[in-house]
Amino acid sequence: MRTEGFTLPEVQFLFRENSEFVTRTTSELFNNKRVVIFSLPGAFTPTCSAYQLPGFEEKYDEFTALGIDAIYCISVNDAFVMNAWTKDLNIENVKLIPDGNAYFTRSMGMLVNKSNLGFGNRSWRYAAVVDNGIIEKIFVERGLRDNSDVDPYEETTPDKVLEYVASSVKTPVTV
Fold it and tell me: Which of 1, 34, 115, 167 has the most beta carbons within 10 angstroms of its beta carbon?
């Protein structure tokens, strides 16, 4: 599992925009920015749809007021599913990143098998503050393992991440 101080894995993400496939790299999305990312088991799932994604959307302005440039939601779902989920929940500020092939999730050490729920391979729930492509702080739910019978949601809430961001605001040095 990648931890604080590690560089994010360099992968290509395949988005669907204006009826075209568009490829973006980790570098394009994360370099020269301080961002929050969070990953979850799947689009349209109960906790993800009722709490986590809407919670980050609701607190978007609070995050940006504290110097966060973007908030990204990453899931092992394809671009069509991520776009439909964005539309269904009326998400305007959080950018959803499709990791349909799980290249990013696997490289982060967060890929788990959830075949006990019929999900196949998915992401374990985590969040991170990333500064210029380097993991500054990571939040991981307890019990990371394949076929977990629980889906904890305590460490990766928007409130916990916002609390960290507020405590680590980067202020310019005055001379």
Answer: 34
Fill in the DSSP letter of residue 116.
Answer: G
pLDDT tens digits in sequence order for the chain, 175 residues long: 899 999 999 999 999 999 999 999 999 999 999 999 999 999 999 999 999 999 999 999 999 999 999 999 999 999 999 999 999 999 999 999 999 999 999 999 999 999 999 999 999 999 999 999 999 999 999 999 999 999 999 999 999 999 999 999 876 544 5
Helix, strand, coil proportions of the chain in percent (round to 5)?
A: 30, 30, 40
48 catalytic? Reply is: yes
3-state secondary structure of 126: strand
Q: What is the pTM of this model?
A: 0.94
The CATH number of the domain covering residues in 12-167: 3.40.30.10
The distance between the two most distant Cα atoms of the chain, rounded to a whole number of Å, is: 58
Name the residue ranges covered by the structural domains of the chain: 12-167
- For 169, residues 6+ apart whose C-beta sits below 8 A from its C-beta are 66, 67
Strand, coil or helix: what is 81? helix
User: Residues 48, 94, 127, 162: which is the catalytic one?
Assistant: 48
Q: Beta strands 34-40 and 70-75: pairing type? A: parallel
